[in-house]
């Protein structure tokens, strides 16, 4: 169980209260977010109940987020709680993730963000443990992250400190991922699915660059080429 995310709380952590009733609001979106958690499992990004996905509710000052300590196996919409942008649960009988205040802070301060993901995926968390940004030495990194994956500050869990670190690090940065020091991966996106993609890609490149470092010294990509790759991938690649 992730003592730093969705596991039992300590005296330091805020105990996240459920709304106390299940009215079934935003059920379709909650079903969608519940299903997205399966991608964290299938891509090997989470262990036990660690990690979470949230998504902003369109047109409302609300978001939905995985309940604290809720198993991935058999996760349904009822394991997803509706919260306001202060992190207070407004619908659902599951207490929301202990990362709720962090997610709420990001949604309040980054209106362009509509989805967030947190994992402790192995290689990415190893970079976080070293407090070392992942250098941009792969075209896939230039495509998805537009440069290095940055390191955010160390922050304790249970209030909005992590959210502050995410916002301070990613504001004005092209990367949708930040590795919070000694902790793990936080990603943002225009949707929850986009944030999941960023989390998958972050672990993939963290692993590859780690292996490259065991073999020698990776070769950086010149900034002009990084810019060109990012522009092509973001605006030309794929079906439009």
What would you note in describing this structure?
By secondary structure, the chain is an alpha+beta fold. The chain contains 7 helices and 8 strands, in the order H-E-E-E-E-H-E-H-H-E-H-E-E-H-H. It has an 8-stranded mixed beta sheet with strand order 4-3-2-1-5-8-7-6, with helices on both faces. Helix 5 (161-170) links the parallel strand 6 (151-152) and strand 7 (177-180). Helix 3 (122-130) packs across helix 6 (192-215). The radius of gyration is 17 Å and the shape is globular. The termini are far apart. The relative contact order is 0.16.
What key attributes describe this structure?
240 residues; alpha+beta; eight-stranded mixed β-sheet; 15% strand; disordered N terminus
The N- and C-terminal alpha carbons lie at a distance of 41 Å
Count of individual beta strands? 8
Helix content: 25-40%
What is the beta-strand fraction?
5-15%
- Largest beta sheet: strand ordering: 4-3-2-1-5-8-7-6
Largest sheet: 8 strands, mixed
Structural class of the helices, strands and pairings?
alpha+beta
Give me the number of helical elements: 7
- Give the overall average pLDDT: 93
Shape verdict: globular
Compressed to H and E, one letter per element, the order equals HEEEEHEHHEHEEHH
Q: What would you report as the Rg, rounded to the nearest angstrom?
A: 17 Å
- Low confidence ranges: 1-13
């Amino acid at each position: 169980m992730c003592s730093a995310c969705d596991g039992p709380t300590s005296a330091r952590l805020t105990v996240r209260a459920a709304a106390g009733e299940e009215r079934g609001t935003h059920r379709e979106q909650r079903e969608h977010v519940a299903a997205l958690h399966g991608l964290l499992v299938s891509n090997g990004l989470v262990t036990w109940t660690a990690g979470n996905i949230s998504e902003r509710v369109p047109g409302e000052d609300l978001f939905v987020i995985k309940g604290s300590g809720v198993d991935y196996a058999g996760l349904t919409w009822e394991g997803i709680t509706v919260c306001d942008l202060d992190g207070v649960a407004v619908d659902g009988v599951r207490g929301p993730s202990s990362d709720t205040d962090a997610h709420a802070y990001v949604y309040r301060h980054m209106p362009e963000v509509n989805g967030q993901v947190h994992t402790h995926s192995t290689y990415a968390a190893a970079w976080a443990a070293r407090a070392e940004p992942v250098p941009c030495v792969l075209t896939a990194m230039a495509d998805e992250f537009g440069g290095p994956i940055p390191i955010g500050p160390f922050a304790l869990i249970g209030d909005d400190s992590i959210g502050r670190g995410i916002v301070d690090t990613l504001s004005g940065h092209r990367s949708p991922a930040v590795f919070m020091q000694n902790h793990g991966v936080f990603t943002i996106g225009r949707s929850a699915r986009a944030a999941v993609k960023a989390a998958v890609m972050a672990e993939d490149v963290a692993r590859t660059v780690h292996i490259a470092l065991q073999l020698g010294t990776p070769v950086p990509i010149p900034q002009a080429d990084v810019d060109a790759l990012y522009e092509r991938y973001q605006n030309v690649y794929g079906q439009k």
